[in-house]
Each structure stands twice: as structure tokens, then as C-alpha cells.
Amino acid sequence: MANSKEPRVLAIILGGGKGTRLYPLTKERSKPAVPFGGKYRIVDIPISNCINSGYRKIYLLTQFNSASLHHHITSSYNFDHFSKGFVEILAAEQTLEHSGWFEGTADAVRKNMVHFRSQNPTHYIILSGDQLYRMDLKAFMDSHIASGADITIATTAVNERDATGFGIMKIDNKQAITEFIEKPSVDVLKSGNWKIPANARGDLPAEKEYLASMGIYIFNAKTMEEMLDNEFTDFGKEIIPRAIKNKKVNSYIFDGYWEDIGTIRSFYNSTLDLTLDHPPFNFYDADAPIYTHMRNLPPPKVNGAPHIENSLLTEGCMIINAKSITKSVIGVRTIIREGSELDGVITMGADFYENEEAKADNKKEGRPNIGIGKNCKIAKAIIDKDAAIGDNCSINVSGKVYPDGENKLDNGVSFYSSEGIIVIRKGAVIPSGTVI
What we know:
The chain is of the alpha/beta class. It folds into 2 domains: 265 residues, Alpha-Beta Complex (Spore Coat Polysaccharide Biosynthesis Protein SpsA, Chain A), CATH 3.90.550.10; 130 residues, Hexapeptide repeat proteins (UDP N-Acetylglucosamine Acyltransferase, domain 1, 3 Solenoid), CATH 2.160.10.10. Strand 26 and strand 27 form a beta hairpin. The termini are far apart.
């Protein structure tokens, strides 16, 4: 028989806004739906953290480009009827009470409280949909309950340079949060005694002296209702600072790997870090697996490739006598043809294999087949889904530096550049011989 004192936890994953910092990967999909790690979506990370922690009542709040996300969720997460678990998307909607978009994180939760109350939770756990980390959320919840706090905020230690980009917490000797400041200057940090107290440091690295909010919260259900009984729209900027003055708010110091993958640069680096001998985020953890859509695809096929090093090859991909693949992540159904060289490349793969009829039509229209053609050289690039790259193409190996943003070649080919990383759009067609 279930313990009646066990907390009834409802998990809420925030899908984020328009995802402009991850553009063009978010041109046709929301941030949580962006493919990651060859076969996953970013949203699989927080959902898997919930499932592995025993929390199976999960709502995902979103309002931009939600079709791809909806398809992924419905095809990936189906619990049995006896567990009463679910992963359900709640998109912004018009009702008799409100007619606008979500105006912020707190506003998104407030506008969906009618759905949440029906689950009669004792606690809410608020998670972000675009972060890479593995956390035992039950340990987080146990710490919250043991502390007697109304709200607990997950925090991570950061160095002085990084602290200026986060919301920074000041805590006392019992890890109660006494003060909060949003993106402080270095001078403010040094003059305001914001460093982590010595007795709370544990084994934290010496250079990481400040506590940054991870945007992950636990609220007692009653406290959530009280804190949202207003018109404030954002947790980090408005609700949390107000709560610190009126409620017992504690810090839960997380000392594991955590990365906000909200920009092209962070997305690229975090993905390629997966190819390291000992990656900071390990998908090969039997005790805390990351779940995703089961595709029933065949295993990777390598028909000759003299040099494959520090790379991930996901199911359904075909390497047909490629010359070399180095520090790259090759997505599902990706086809790499004869003589091609990839170095530091992320391919998101394809949604389908082209049949012979489609290939014949491509040939008739002078269009390359989906995948990477023969004798291509590609470096420091992200190739989105269903892109068709012709033979003898050179991408990001000429040494030319392109301005950040949209770029267009004389032959009409368009691409996106971000800090030296070239992004080939979803469904893009790159004619044979193109040099980027």
C-alpha cells in the first residue's frame, strides 16, 4: 500500500520562448524539440530526469512551433494505465479568463493552474526544457522536505566571470537564501559578500565561489498558489526575489555537470563533448538512462571508412567508403558517401530514407539525394535534418570568415553562421561543387 505521506509531485517543464539564440535550429521547432546527441531531443533530458526519479506526472508548457514537439512526445512517452503517469503538452490557449500568449515563466504556470490543480499535488517541481544535466530529483525533493522550506532553488557553483551572466544567490550557514541579484557586475560581487560560505562548499572547485540559479525550483503547492496570486510574469526576475523576502527559500547545491544549451555555440560544444573519452555528460549510464522515441531502425552500417575517430554513429546511418570522420556526431539515417571528410560536424540525420523513385526524380531535377555526397569536406558545422548536400562540396574549410547571421552565396545557397560555426538549414539543398 502506498505511503500516504509520500509527496504528490507534479513536474512542469518550461518550453521556453521563441528560441532566438538557437536560431535557425528553432526556425521550425521549439527549443525542447531540437535534436541532440544524434538520436535524442533536448526535452528528453528533463523528462528522463523525472522518470528516473519516480516522477511520472509531467506537463510540458510551450507556445512556439509546438507541432514537432507534440509529435515527439506522443510517439515517445506512453505509460501503462496502472501507473497513472503521463507526459502532456500544454500550449498557450485562449480561455474565458485569458486570451494572450504566455508572458513569462510564471505567467505560463499561472495560466495552467486549472489543469495542475486537478492532480491535487503537494509539491511542484519546475524544470527548464533546454538544459543538459542528470539530477536525482528525488534527492532534491527529500532535501526540500527535510529543510522545511516553502521553496527550494537548485543552484550550481560558478566562477567570477560566469557569475555576471546568472542570477546569484547569497546563502547563510544553513543554506537558506537571504538575497538574490540578477546578473551582477564583478564590482558588486566583490563588495557584497556573495561568496559561498565555507561550511557549504563541500568539494566544490576553489575557483567557483558563487551560487547561480539553475532555473529549477520546488514549490510547496500552497506556496505556489500564493506566489502566483498577482500579475508578476517571471520566476527568476520577480517571483523568486519576492519570495526570498516573505517565505523560507533554501538552496540545493548541485555539484554535477550542468550546461545551458540555449545558444548555437553551447549547443555545438555540448554535443561534440559527447565524443570525448570521458564525456562530462554520459549517455551510457545504466542507472539513469535517457529515454527517447523508439524508431526500430537498423544498426549503423559502415562500408569502408579508413578513419573514424571520437565520433558517435547512431542507428540507421550509412557510411559508404567515406575518407574520414573525426570528432563528429552522426544522426539517425544520415548517409555519408564516398571520399567525404567530416571534422567537428553534427548531422541531425533524416526523417526518412529516399526510395528509388525519389532518387530518380532528384536526378531528373539535378537535385542531390538527402545526405552528404561524394568527396565533400566539411568542418565545424551543424547540418540540420533532411539536408541534401551534393558531390565535391566544401563547407567551412576554405578559411573564409562569414559574419554572424544569414549569409547567401552567388548561386543562391543560403546558410547561417554563428561564431565560426556554419549551420545548414533543415531541408536545405546544397548543389554539387558549392564552397562555403
